[in-house]
Amino acid sequence: xxxxxxxxxxxxxxxxxxxxxxxxxxxxxxxxxxxxxxxxxxxxxxxxxxxxxxxxxxxxxxxxxxxxxxxxxxxxxxxxxxxxxxxxxxxxxxxxxxxxxxxxxxxxxxxxxxxxxxxxxxxxxxxxxxxxxxxx
Length: 136
Fold this sequence. Notes:
The protein is of the alpha/beta class. The protein has helices at residues 15-25, 44-53, 70-80, 97-102, 115-126, and strands at residues 5-11, 35-41, 58-62, 87-91, 107-110, 133-135. Strands 2-1-3-4-5-6 form a 6-stranded parallel beta sheet, with helices on both faces. Residues 130-136 have low confidence and may be disordered. Keywords: Phosphoprotein. It comes from Lentzea kristufekii.
């Protein structure tokens, strides 16, 4: 059995939002993927450090994070980091999906998170799905 894991960074200034995202996605979103290992980030500095260091395979960003939301952060990361890892943005309203598209996110989740949709979205992004995925 493989001990390989995929490292996922989950960013929100609110610990309960990070926990909700981690719980919804789970430790193994699909049988054909490696087990997920989560890194929680509460500050933009933590996200920038991990993304710039290349230590994470995927970022899940809270679109409502304060003082800077995940959508603006996603756009910054995609513009500034060569070979930026894929990014999933979690938004509160379905109407905010267009902003997540502007942010260059690879996929969008809409709260309240459906565990099946969240796991499927993350699995599709990890497999390299080329088209933006919107679940919610």
